[in-house]
Amino acid sequence: MGTVNIPRLDLNDFVKGSDTLRKQFSDAIGKAFNETGFVTITNHGLDKNLIGKLYADVKMLFALPDSIKAKYEIAGLAGQRGYTGKQKETAKGFTAPDLKEFWQIGQTVTDDDAMKSEYPENIRVDEVPDFNDTTLKVYKKLEWAGIYLLRAISVYLGLPENYFDKQVHNGNSILRTLHYFPITDPDRLPADAVRAGAHEDINLITLLIGASADGLELLTRENKWFPVKAHGEDIVVNVGDMLQRLTNNKLKSTTHRVVNPPGELMKFSRFSVPFFLHPKAGMDLSCLPSCIDASHPKQYDDITAGAYLDERLREIGLKK
Ligand SMILES: O=C(O)CCC(=O)C(=O)O
Ligand SMILES: [Fe+2]
């Protein structure tokens, strides 16, 4: 197993630290995103109680009978709001769908931004009323943390610190609550059926709550799988394909997966909550001129975030 250094960084260093601490934070996140695409973050703004409440509500939601959950799976939304049932998403290149079910929450525009009319309404769960409020709180906190992380990355890239702010404010981010359900007869699974097949995230960056549970692995440059572990309440942050594309591969969107636990452990659920930070659909993802030179020729065609998302949702079977 190759070893990988996933640095643990304190977001407070960047949010309220001295110039020296802020610079150290930017350098460290930039270096990690250039090398392995992953960091873990402490002091991210979500307290233990909120995370505890989130998991309690998420567990209640997925404990509902499939027949109730099915009424929240709404055609035409490509899984971007509400429920997506078991084995509906298939990682690119896999034949068996992932062993998971999930619920997605999108942007809530609270000012008079015209973006309001662009987004479908979130779907409210009647049976677990707290779920709606808890996930909105978590969404806003992770969006806040994400904006600071992107500011630190902007500094690393030599861009104005607020380069991403306007694109992320009222952007198309998604909070996904995930349940990897128990499998009672693991021997009968199709050979390539896993909790989450090897993939790269589509968005700018992902902030993941719950990576303290075993299973998440990243693919090293030596093509070896390496387990990602986070301390207690820390969140894991990784680069997605949109940021990789914008930076012409300077920042790496690292392949990752969630493996099945051995034998009997497959009978237990696993829960996790990634927040996929997306910009507004109109954001130009053309490679930054500062990331192109003779030894780094331009790798990607120009595209907007919206067009790119559409292409990727079709690939994974969520959009028809
Ligand atoms: O469940 C996890 O730990 C990771 C999930 C993930 O990679 C994803 O949903 O994109
Ligand atoms: Fe992922």
From TrEMBL:
Q: Does the keyword Plastid apply?
A: no
The Gene Ontology terms for molecular function here are: dioxygenase activity; metal ion binding
UniProtKB keywords: Iron, Metal-binding, Oxidoreductase
Task: Name the domain of life this protein comes from.
Answer: Bacteria
Q: Which PROSITE patterns match?
A: FE2OG_OXY (PS51471)
Alphabetized Pfam families for the sequence: 2OG-FeII_Oxy, DIOX_N
Family matches, as InterPro entries: DIOX_N, IPNS-like_FE2OG_OXY, IPNS-like_sf, Oxoglu/Fe-dep_dioxygenase_dom
Give the residues annotated as coiled coil. none
Q: Which PANTHER family match?
A: FI07970P-RELATED, OXIDOREDUCTASE, 2OG-FE II OXYGENASE FAMILY PROTEIN
What does the sequence similarity comment in the record state about its family? Belongs to the iron/ascorbate-dependent oxidoreductase family.
Q: What is this protein called?
A: 2OG-Fe(II) oxygenase superfamily protein
Organism expressing this protein natively: Mucilaginibacter gotjawali
